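During the second half of the funding period, the structural biology subgroup turned its attention to how the target accommodates small molecules. The most pressing case was zinc ion, which had performed well in the primary screen but for which no bound structure existed. We therefore specified the complex as follows and requested a full 3D prediction, including the ligand pose.
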Amino acid sequence: MVVFDSVTRRRVRVGPDIGKAKLYACGITPYDATHLGHAFTYVSIDLLHRVWLDAKLDVDYAQNITDVDDPLLERAAATGVEWRELAASQIKLFRSDMEALRVVPPGVYRGVVESMDDVVALVAELAQRGAVYQVGDGCPDWYFSVESAPEFLAGRDLESDLATFAERGGDPDRPGKRHPLDPLVWRAERPGEPSWAAPVSAAIPAPPDSRGRPGWHVECAAIALKALGADFDVQAGGKDLAFPHHPMCAAQATQLTGQRFAKAYLHVGMVGLDGEKMSKSRGNLIFVHKLLAGGADPMAVRLLLLDHHYRSDWEYTADELPRAALRLERWRSAARVAGNAASATGQFDPSAGIRYAGELLNGVRTALADDLDAPTALAAVDRWAKKPGTNPAATALAVRVVDALLGINLG
Ligand code: ZN
């Protein structure tokens, strides 16, 4: 299959011939429930996972949880909930939303807190290699030097990168940094914040018993390397991770391993509402669990997401859910009618039904193999639903195709 690699900006073949595929998806920061933007990201990545499983590949899929981070700690402080409790409750809600949307879970699902030893070891290794320096007095913070990773800076547009870096949590103007794009890898302990023992490196003299917590990029680098090793097939996430997060992960991991991090990058479009990107900071969120609590069929929610190509940015409008629910009902009634017609008459046209189901299977497989073109795959199901035939075995095959490849349960 091919996907559009957003780094080389080319369509590249993914899914190796060796029977094994490795996928890493950047996970959530658990301080707020799953909104439609998250759901679109993980349902889109789920399509890649399903295509690989359908191709009989042995898939290693790892996803992290950023379970200690500024917005989580801020939300915990603002609501008076202990940060670990807040994270645990939001992880539970995210997982139940994913389960309702029938997202096949990753084999490795790891939080930063439980991976702290690996993250600290990676920071120490980077320091040993001279890629880390300190900024600030007393208990300084540690930064990764992007100049130590020449491939990171090659061909970049510094002006636009600096603006994006600042917008997405970077601190380009902090005095004492060697390069404005250098990312934080270790934040010295601040009063009232959770902390862990600092990395130990002869290259970076830290006061005894100094503590702190890691930066975001190095966390994903450590968790991905531990779960998948270097040179895995795809790193995936929302489009807002295309810079700086993914290139920073790659620069840090490559510094350590000398190998490529991910072979290709899959970036999912942003979901908007009322002319703005759906985001926590803007507060314009549509939550999956609220749609479900309001009576929405989770399969209709999944279907409305699949009706958008994963690379497109789109706006959620109120008519999408009823439209998806109608489509789902048409598909379900095709599955029912085909079965009923056969049992009522005791007769059916086996060849027609087999042909229709075969066309459905080919249509869905071909569309998804072409850069996960879900809208075209849905159109193939629409064609089948208009003319499903009355062969029960063929109908059962069609139902399995829609279930296995698109994750839509027609039962
Ligand atoms: Zn990540």
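Two results from this model are relevant to the next phase. Residues 159 and 403 are 46 Å apart (CA to CA). The mean pLDDT is 92.
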